[in-house]
Amino acid sequence: MAFDRSRRPSDPRQAAEAAFKAATTKPPEVAKPAAVAPVAGVASAAVPGAREMVSLRLDRAVLEHFQKDGPGWQDRINAALKSAAGL
Fold this sequence. Notes:
This protein is mainly alpha-helical. It has helices at residues 12-24, 60-67, 73-85.
């Protein structure tokens, strides 16, 4: 049986570069519908009601105000922020 050289690259360096390029090239993104265009700084609406963990600096008095009624203080802060934002 004869060895088939047509499947073997003629230049190993060129073949390696082509393989590297194929493995590291980002595929083109599929255009999103205009109605679902992302808003900078806003979490994706893929999961309705999903929350995102953030770090937030609050005045001690504000934190104490929301924590004085016990557990659920984070939900109360979220509700107050939603109300203030008109959401």
